[in-house]
Amino acid sequence: MRRTSGIAALCGVVALTVTACGGSSASDTLNNALSNASKAASVAASAASANAGGSAPANAGNVDCSGITKDDLAKFLVYTQVIAQAKTADSVAAIKAKQISDYTPTAMSAILAKLGVLAGHPATGFADPADSLAYFAKANDLLAAMIAADSPSQAQLDEYTAATGGTAAAIGKQLPINASIAQYCKI
């Protein structure tokens, strides 16, 4: 288990999120993300030493991440970016046609189920990822309904936007999940 400050963990999460936006393949994204996460871990270790008086979350060390793969993490980062971009009928059509990525609601649901082990295990300085996991599950369900339609209605788009809060909110919801992954999972 690593003890990290909120700032150090945030640096690692931002590195992972920015890398995911680079537009490269999932494999390249993962390799870059893992490299950045390794650098962030060094910063986190230094910060943990500086914050030796801090405390680890109550559930520290009790997360079985064995069902989560590197491919799952790479796809999660990409798929959450896809969810963040589903704002118009045209963007939904591009997602449906797999012009943006290989995202499918079924694939995202499977990844979220695996990440469910993180619920109740907040990283130091971050909220419990359970709320973020529920947020992405709802967004995924709403996006699935829009993909299933011939063309999403304005009412569906409005409901989706209201539920997701837009791009910044979707990206922000990654933070508790990514921070918990960085703190608890050796992948």
Computed over alpha carbons, the radius of gyration is 17 Å
Q: β content, as a range?
A: under 5%
Total individual domains: 1
Average pLDDT number: 77
Overall SS class: mainly alpha
Number of helices: 8
- The succession of helices and strands, N to C, reads HHHHHHHH
Helix content: 55-70%
Coarse shape: globular
Major sheet size, sense and barrel closure: none
Task: List low-pLDDT spans.
Answer: 1-60
The assembly state of the depicted protein chains is: single chain
- The CA-CA distance between the termini, in Å, is 13 Å
The overall strand count is 0
Short overview:
This protein is 66% helix and 0% strand.
List keywords for this structure.
single chain, 187 residues, mainly alpha, 8 helices
Fold and architecture overview:
This protein has about 190 residues and is mainly α. The chain has one domain. The chain is about 65% helix and about 0% strand. It is built from eight helices and no strands. Residues about 1-60 have low confidence and may be disordered.
Topology of this protein?
Layout: H1 6-20, H2 26-50, H3 70-85, H4 89-96, H5 105-115, H6 129-148, H7 154-164, H8 167-184
Helix pairs in contact: 1-2, 1-8, 2-3, 3-8, 5-6, 6-7, 6-8
